[in-house]
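W.,

You were right to be curious about this one. When I first looked at the sequence I had no strong expectations either way, so I just let the prediction run and decided to look at it fresh. Below is the sequence, 313 residues in total, followed by the output.
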Amino acid sequence: MKSGNETSSADFILLGLLSQTKVHKFSLAIILLAFIIALSGNALLICLIKVDSSLHTPMYFFLSQLAFMDICQTLIVVPKMAADFLTPGNPISAAGCGVQIFLSLTMGGAECVLLAVMAYDRYVAICNPLQYPVLLSRKVCLGLTNGVWIAASADALILAASTMHLSYCGSKEINHFFCEVPALLKLSCSDTSQYETLLFVTSVVLLLIPSSIILASYACILAAVLRMNSTKQQKALATCSSHLTVVGMFYGAAIIMYTRPTSYHSPEQDKIVALFYTIVPPVLNPLTYSLRNRDVLRALRKLFGKCRVFQQN
C-alpha cells in the first residue's frame, strides 16, 4: 500500500512553468486570472450567439465552436498547472498523461482546422456573397464542424497512443507545465526517429496545409476588398483582421513547437511558446472578436438591457 507521499514508478512528474524558481504567488494569480477571463469570456460569447437571433449565421456558429474549444483547452491545462504552482513536482499517472495529451491535441488540432474553415467562410461571404447561403448552409456547416472534430480526434488518438507506447526508462520528470509531446520525447529511451517523422507529417497536415488555405483565402479577400468602397472596406477589414490576429498568434506558436526536430527544443523556450497556443488564445479570442465586432457588441448591449429590465421588474 503506498503512502500519500509516495508515487508509482510509472508516474510522471510535471516540473511546472517555473521549474527553476520558487513558487511565485503573483504568477499563480496571473494564471488564475487568465483562467477566469478565458472561461467567462468564452462562455459569454457562446451565450450571446445562442440567444441573439442576429448572430445565427455561419460565421458566429464557427465562432461558438472556437469558444467551446478554448474553454476545453483551458480546463485541460490550467487546473493541473495551478496545482503544480502550489505543490511543485506533482505526479501525474501515465494514463492521466496520455489522456491530457489526447485532449490537448484534439482541441489544438480542431482549432487549427476550424480557423481554416473560418477563413473559407470569410472568403465566400466577401468574394461570393450571392452563393453564401448555398455554400455554407446549416447542413454544410454541421458537416464541416463534424469533420473538424473527427479529423482532430483521430490525429490526437494516433499521436497520444504512439507517445505512451514509447519506453521511458530514465527520468520521469517532464520539464513542462502539462504533458506535451516534444517534452516527453526528450525522456524516451526508445528510438523516436519514426515517431518524429509521424509527428512532422501530422503537423504538415494540421498546420501547414490549413495555414496555406488561410493565406490563399485572404489573398482573394484582399483583392476583393480593394475593389470595394471605403465603408465596405472598413467593415470587411475589421472582421478579417480579428481572425488574422488569432491565426497569426496560434499558428505561429504551434508551427514553432511541432515542426522542429526534438534536438532543437529547449525546455524554457518550449514552455513560453506553449503558452501562446494553450493559455493566451482562450483569453484573447473573446476580446479580439467582441471588441472589434459591432454585431457582438450590439448583442451584448441588448443582453445587458434585458437584464436591467428584468431586475427593475
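Here's what jumped out at me. The mean pLDDT is 83. And, maybe more interesting for your project: The longest helix spans residues 94-127.

Coffee later to discuss?

I.
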